[in-house]
Amino acid sequence: MTLNVYLSGEIHTDWRDQIIAGAEGLDIAFDSAVTDHAASDDCGVAILGAEADKFWHDRKGANMNAIRTRRGLESADVVVVRFGDQYKQWNAAFDAGYAAALGKSLIILHDPAHDHPLKEVDAAAQAVARTPQQVVEILRYVLTGALPG
Q: Could you say which residues of the chain have pLDDT below 50?
């Protein structure tokens, strides 16, 4: 049976690629938000028309992205949420909360520097990983029962 994994969070590093490559050979289907920052920001105005006010420009994009995100979160068996160092990922925190409310298994991925600010998010998760490789090992264990080694 295929494990559906939704990858949420920061888009500025290659953590998604590392997880997908590390999970090669496992029966996992990965899904994600659009990681092209410009496309994600501008999808609403590109499809529905320009907005003079930046608020409405962003609102159109956020609403359209929410369609994709909700579908991905709702169909996931496991949700992995990455919090990076460069930006505050409010959307990632929202995704983690939404996934927790849906009763999804949740893996949070962040550096130790974020332990305190993310303590409530971490408390809702089934695992808190420090590296993409740890996420891969969790997924491998879930699917096969095999420990790293």
A: none
